[in-house]
Amino acid sequence: MPPLDEFGLIRVWTEGRQSKEMLAKAGVTLGIGDDAAVVAGSSGQEWLFAMDTMVEEIHFRNETMSESDVGYKALAANISDIAAMGGMPKFALVSVSVPPQWDSNRMKQLYDGVYMCAEKYGVAVIGGDTTSAPRHLVVSVTVIGSIEAGKAIRRSGAKAGQFVFLTGPTGLSAGGLHGLLKKPADEGGPDSVPVPPHRLVQAHQRPSPSVKAGRILLEQGWGASLNDVSDGVASEAWEIAEASHVKLVLKETHLPLSGELVAYARDNGIHPLDWVLYGGEDYVLLGTADKRHELAMKEHFRAEGIPLFIIGEVEAGQPEVILETSAGASKPIHKRGYNHFPKGYNE
What we know:
Catalyzes the ATP-dependent phosphorylation of thiamine-monophosphate (TMP) to form thiamine-pyrophosphate (TPP), the active form of vitamin B1. This protein folds into two domains: 6-148, CATH 3.30.1330.10; 155-332, Phosphoribosyl-aminoimidazole Synthetase, Chain A, domain 2 (Alpha-Beta Complex), CATH 3.90.650.
């Protein structure tokens, strides 16, 4: 078997294990392969199921996240998957595997963050599991949401002629993480960097899932395809391109650049586009929509106080993502972002 990345491995591990007939009989409308699974409900509704796991030293460290930050972000990441389908988050199951150094007080603070996020987004925490762990903390969260039957916005709805949009700037979380992992300049040291702006740190530690934006896109019928930016714009754009069998052309001059991010990146000798395209964990929405909706979308999002950036267009062709640079050149954007199993893992 040739080397596979994380997503290829998921397909190998899960594809074809259960028949379409069996899944349909169980009420599964959409199974593995999108931001959330869709399952038949009642009274014109369907259920959305999403699960994410955070592992100490992989997703967070003591120097990057407080205990309450970990709990907050673990739930927020799952809520974002529900938002990416246009749904409403309803319930959460929280499971923790706790190592010895995470005493009762630290775990209470973690749950403080979970419940703070739950209250903000109207999610009822209804159960989970608790076990011991030998070395590192593991937090797994399942969020169950609801959505109007047949209305879930999938990654596979992009069509040639549509435009590509973002519901907020990206790269902020990556910039915040960069600063948190380095020793601030005012503390000295060979690896010191300028202190990251608070907005960047907040974006990394306390992300804001785009539930309202997702609901607008569903209720107005504007969202043709949708994905949340968890692994980076490049990775999410590739997922839409592959699921929809189209080419996405992004325009460098249209990508939203936060002034704080640009200044901080340049102070650190980093091109801000690296964080914008490949940073991840921003949890804004990336999607496509018909061009006839562009003006209405801009006006509606402006009235709601939600950013909307038109960053490219969809073209017919083999699945790929292209960047039109500010210099007028076109270059491929590689499917790069955070990957738990880089190619070669299974060699």
